[in-house]
Structures are given as C-alpha cells and as structure tokens.
Amino acid sequence: QVQLVESGGGLVQAGGSLRLSCAASGFTLDYYNIAWFREAPGKEREGVSCISRRDGSTYYRDSVKGRFSISRDNAKNTVYLQMNSLKPEDTAVYYCAAVALGSCRLEGPYDYWGQGTQVTVSS
C-alpha cells in the first residue's frame, strides 16, 4: 500500500525551529519528485519546497528561502523539511506529496499525498 506519513509538527515560538519528516511506504521516494505544501486556515494550499528526483535540485517559495531546507535520506526512504527562523505566518498544516513524472514543481497535480502535520508558530 502506497503511503506518505508526515511527522514533526508542533507548537513553537517565533524564531524557533522544527524539522518535518515525510516517510514513504509502498514505493521508493528517490524515484519521485517530493514537495512540501502547506495550507493555512482560510487560505489556498501553496507549495513550499520541492526536491528533484533527477539530480536532487531543490526549490523554495520566496517567503521561505534562506529559512527552510529540504533534504532526502534514501536509506530511510524519508524526506525532511528543516524549518528555521519560523514566523507566525508559517502556521499551517504541512503536507508532503510525491509525483513520478515531470519536473519538480510547487504546484499540482501530485500522485500521492500525506495526511498532514500541524505547525503552529506563536508570536
């Protein structure tokens, strides 16, 4: 069964850090482009970061550049999102998603989605 499971969310003060994990089962992550999306209350879901299956290139939305870092551990079949210098506007449910075809991108469609993990940043 194909599954993505996020973990690592929580409550943190502004300026703090969290590391989100996206663990895959039923398929091998390194054959897929993996992206992190987030959805805040009352807002549309937006792409945050992506790591390419081809060469490991990484991409970020402008608002998180220099603060977030995406990486993958193929041995653990897991992708991470290290989030530093968190701001209240980073508060959202964060989802990881996988797509086999095409290029790494910060918008859909994606083949597989996780259930999400809540990140709350207090001011």
How would you summarize the topology of this molecule?
Blueprint: E1 3-7, E2 10-13, E3 18-25, E4 33-39, E5 46-51, E6 58-60, E7 68-73, E8 78-83, E9 92-99, E10 112-113, E11 117-122
Which secondary-structure class do the elements indicate?
A: mainly beta
Number of helices: 0
Low-pLDDT parts are none
Outline, from the CA principal axes? globular
Mean pLDDT over the full residue set = 95
Q: Major β-sheet, in short?
A: 7 strands, mixed
Number of strands: 11
Radius of gyration from the CA trace?
A: 13 Å
Distance between the termini: 40 Å
Please report which band the strand proportion falls in: under 5%, 5-15%, 15-25%, 25-35%, 35-45% or over 45%. Answer: over 45%
Order of helices and strands: EEEEEEEEEEE
> Helix share of residues?
under 10%
Structural overview:
The protein is mainly beta. The protein has no helices and 11 strands. Strand 5 (46-51) and strand 6 form a beta hairpin. The chain is globular and about 40 Å long.
List keywords for this structure.
single chain; 123 residues; mainly beta; seven-stranded mixed sheet; four-stranded antiparallel sheet; 50% strand; globular
Short description:
This protein has 123 residues and is an all-beta fold. It has no helices and eleven strands.
